Amino acid sequence: MIPRLASPSVCVIDDEEKDYGPILDALMKLGLGCVHVRGKSGDPLPPRPFEALRLVFTDLHLSGQVGKGAASHTANVVKKVVSAECGPVLLVVWSKYAGDPAGDASLPPEDQPTEADLFKAELLSSEPKFKGRLVFAEMPKPKLPDRPAVEEWVKTLQLEVEKVLKTIGAFDILWTWEALARDAGIEVTETLTNLTEANVSDTEPLEIKLKLMLRLLAQQQAGPDSSAATVPRHLLTVFSQIGLDVLEAESSVAELEAHAGWLAERLPDEIRKKHRSAKLNAALLTSAAAPSFATFMPGTIFDVSDTVAFTAATGFSVERLQRDCFEGDPDKSPAFADFKERTKPVLLEITPACDFHQGHRRCATLLAGLAFPGDLQKRANAKDACKSTPVFEDRHSIPVGDVGFVFCGRYRFTTSVDQHPAWLRPRLRLRDMLVTDIRNWHSSQASRVGFLSF
After folding, report:
1. pTM for the whole thing?
2. How far is CA 273 from CA 393, 398, 405, in A?
3. Which domains does the chain have, with CATH numbers?
4. Which of 94, 139, 142, 444 has the most CB atoms around its CB within 10 Å?
């Protein structure tokens, strides 16, 4: 139970109580919960690096050493504390000796790297992933004789911490989002706790009241699909609906207004083209397939491993599908041969989400299409009976490469929801908004009247 609450976002790494005591007090007065690591040789370190850290203050001399020895020791402690997979992280060097020269004593002081530079170089060389995850800053730490009284020192530290936090607007937006999401979660729990007061007998303890309320919500959302295997996802659906309402409130938008100016600055066309990448599309439009969650989950794209079995089961050939999905006349265009050679058949599950979640579907509804390499996008038909997706990085397949999909509304196939045919293999899942767009397009194609009258 307790590990679910273990998600510190701020960490102080320092071994001197006269140093770390005031900064911990300053962080507390700012309302920033943090974890403290002394970092001396032999002192305990986390069993694994923290994955939710966003702000780290570290001293440079944790072991009584100086120069390269101190840099190596501190870098090792930071690697044990900060996960190289998380980010972004603002790492604040907070040391009395950050600007002191270090390195080769035979060199003039002005030619030597500083203690802070030596530490940064040691950290980045020992863990290259940090290069894309960390942003470094420095905060002054006066030596003991130069410090004011403790209370004044804490106030000074508060101002310095706030100053550091204001330097990076992009970080602030992401941290604001995390805080809003956390606040939305808190709002959900408060809302449900308040409901127990209004709808359940006061003679029951709170734990029983909440159990009854959560059971009611999960079963009502699930409908006839209420079982131990399905109700957890139905309860998450209820939580998400309440939380999304909180996130979309005007008060949430106001949290980001301080950054509205630079967010709205017009980007040059060359910058837009450079950064609108297939990798970015992959993050926005796709996620990993989850075959263990459901045999046929809506939005899942399946590769066809046996085209003969595919044709036998569906009643249409891959070549016929390729001809309909090609932009142009396949009998006259020399490009069709290349298109035919480099495209592969796929199927997309398009069952409406409500039918899936409530267990109403009686079969899986699969729409046939083709996977094509990104450079063939202009060859894929994107009008009338066909619809293509944007190109994105296929990070879920080997080898990784840019891919797009084109689907034809004429080719729909249904199969049992209980088991994948042997010739189907889950590849990835399209996110809900893109699936809904394809599903709506397919519905409009299927609902055309097409009659003739005089």
Report:
1. 0.73
2. 16, 26, 21
3. 2-167 (3.40.50.2300), 174-265 (no CATH), 271-446 (no CATH)
4. 94
